[in-house]
Amino acid sequence: MSFIKNIFGGSGDENPQSKMDWVSLTDLGQLHEITDLSHENPVVIFKHSTRCSISRMALKQFENEFTLKDKVTPYFLDLLNHREISNAIAAMFEVVHQSPQLIVVKAGKAVHDASHSDIDAEDLKNYL
């Protein structure tokens, strides 16, 4: 069972050993902050479903491969607790809602989005 827990994480366990300096996305007002910030530095939004093992695997893989700490600002959205923010992201950045989903925002616009197995930290270099 510990093998399964290491791969998928525990239920409700929200990645306590993350190497990422995530900014928690918990307020609709932060979307304007993201838009403004993205004119200076690209922003990554990771939309995560805490009940989904596929989402958890995609998150862990992304975190393990992420090497652009000083080049992008990463935001983390727990979409089960903040579905209204997820809906606003879809409308504001003109992307179809998916989970898990990675969205790259640059100069106020989504320049890339990926979902499920297409989420790849190495791909971020193409959008900086």
What does this structure look like?
The radius of gyration is 14 Å and the shape is globular. The chain is built from 4 helices and 5 strands, in the order H-E-H-E-H-E-H-E-E. The longest helix is centred in the middle third of the chain and has 13 residues, at 53-65. It starts with a helix and ends in a 13-residue tail after the last strand. With 128 residues, the chain is α/β, with parallel strands linked by helices. Helix content is 30%, strand content 21%. It has helices spanning 2-8, 30-37, 53-65, 83-93; strands at 23-24, 43-48, 73-78, 101-106, 109-115.
What's the gyration radius in Å?
14 Å
**Mean pLDDT metric:** 87
Largest sheet: 5 strands, mixed
Shape verdict: globular
Record field, number of beta strands = 5
Instruction: Compute the separation of the termini in Å.
Output: 40 Å
Counted by DSSP, the helix tally is 4
Instruction: Please state how the strands of the largest beta sheet are arranged side by side.
Output: 1-3-2-4-5
Helix content: 25-40%
Q: Please state roughly what percent of the residues sit in beta strands, choosing from under 5%, 5-15%, 15-25%, 25-35%, 35-45% or over 45%.
A: 15-25%
Write down the secondary-structure element order: HEHEHEHEE
Q: Which structural class fits the helix and strand makeup?
A: alpha/beta
